[in-house]
């Protein structure tokens, strides 16, 4: 398996809902990332996990909560989101933080 | 601070014409530079990495530290090259994050 997979592909949620985004890779990569991409804008880094430990949090609001249960999985827990959080959420992984990042297809999130 | 600029939001060229997508960066040390491409309805994928010094799909890019540039070039554009291109930078120190430029949409006309 040489790809990063993300589920779900699309998600619609209300501002009071709790949902989770899931990212998986089986390439043995030890660094995993969450990015947020608004329409017609570049991806913006949110979180970096290195060897299953959170190493970078780019001042992301606490309504986004990342979790790395093991080296192959990365979750993003969502709670009390705002409409402006609607975006494409991209997951990426790399062998380690110094290596090339490989991206998943993204989850398109709509917050109503 | 790390910063990447791509001055052209949209670049249109005719098939067979040369193409150059500009990328400039600001960084106080020696960064790593990348070009990522996103074709319509496909995931973001790595095109080139400056340390590899390779040619992918006919594209090349040379890091010019004097001009702090990493322009992407192809001598003869093809219609299938139409896509969104992002230049990206990573600082070489641990903990330096990945910064993308704003992107250039390349449209190759028949």
Structural class of chain A: mainly beta
- Supply Rg of chain B: 14 Å
Largest interface: A-B, 20 and 19 residues
Helices and strands of chain B, in order, run as: EEEEEEEEEEE
Q: Give average pLDDT of chain A, whole number.
A: 93
End-to-end Cα distance of chain B: 41 Å
Structural class of chain B: mainly beta
The main pleated sheet of chain A reads as: 7 strands, mixed
Tell me the number of strands of chain B: 11
Q: Any idea what the shape of chain A is?
A: globular
Number of helices of chain B: 0
Low-confidence sequence ranges of chain B: none
| Mass-distribution shape of chain B | globular
For this entry, what is the oligomeric state of its chains? heterodimer
Determine the mean pLDDT of chain B.
90
Q: Give the low-confidence spans of chain A.
A: none
- Give the count of helical stretches of chain A: 0
Major sheet details of chain B: 6 strands, mixed
**Share of helical residues of chain A:** under 10%
Order of helical and strand elements of chain A: EEEEEEEEEEE
């Amino acid at each position: 398996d040489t790809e990063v997979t993300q589920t779900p592909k699309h998600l619609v949620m209300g501002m009071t809902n709790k949902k989770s985004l899931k990212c998986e890779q089986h390439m043995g990569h030890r660094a995993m990332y969450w990015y947020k991409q608004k329409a017609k804008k570049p991806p913006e880094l949110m979180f970096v996990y290195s060897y299953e430990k959170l190493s970078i949090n780019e001042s992301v609001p606490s309504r986004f909560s990342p979790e790395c249960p093991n080296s192959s999985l990365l979750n993003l827990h969502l709670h009390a989101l705002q409409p402006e959080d609607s975006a494409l959420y991209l997951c990426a992984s790399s062998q380690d933080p110094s290596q090339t990042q490989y991206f998943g297809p993204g989850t398109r999130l709509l917050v109503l | 601070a790390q910063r990447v600029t791509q001055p052209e939001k949209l670049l249109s060229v005719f098939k067979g014409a040369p193409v150059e997508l500009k990328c400039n960066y600001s960084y106080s040390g020696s960064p790593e530079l990348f070009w990522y491409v996103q074709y319509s309805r496909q995931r973001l994928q790595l095109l080139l990495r400056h340390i590899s010094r390779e040619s992918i799909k006919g594209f090349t890019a040379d890091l010019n530290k004097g001009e702090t540039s990493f322009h992407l070039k192809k001598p003869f554009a093809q219609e299938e090259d139409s896509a969104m291109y992002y230049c990206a930078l990573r600082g070489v120190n641990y903990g330096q994050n990945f910064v993308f430029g704003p992107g250039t949409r390349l449209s190759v006309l028949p």
